[in-house]
Amino acid sequence: MERARGIGVIELVIALLVAAVVVAVLLTYFRATEEAVKTVTEEKVLERSRLVADRSTAGALRAAVTVHFGREGRFPPDKAAVDALVSPPPAFQCPGNDYTYDPASGRITLAINDLARC
Question: At what angle do helices 45-72 and 9-43 cross, to 10 degrees?
Answer without folding.
Answer: 40
